Amino acid sequence: MSTRLPGARYRRVFDCGRSAKGRFLIAWMHASPGVGSMAGVVASKKAFHDAVDRNRAKRLMRESYRLVSKCGEAPADVEWVFVARRAMSGRKCGDVMEDMRCAMSRALRQGR
Hints:
The chain is of the alpha+beta class. The protein is 41% helix and 21% strand.
């Protein structure tokens, strides 16, 4: 099963979910029983003017989520949307992954 969030579910996560800000990204979460752990990524033209920078930001967030979920730190039955912030420019995957962990745990604490 794919871990990528289908495009039709982004709106539900934004409308019904909770968010937590990190230094490099904003993590939106929505608990959905029976769905599994899925994630989507967003990098806007307003934050990243060049397509190369937008694609790198999305690639960093996807890889960070893959590594976080591989370690078992991503809870099951939660849909995530990660929105890149301008501060992500020039960062390494380890930095983004650590910030993602912090934002995810903050969002989970708010959801309870």
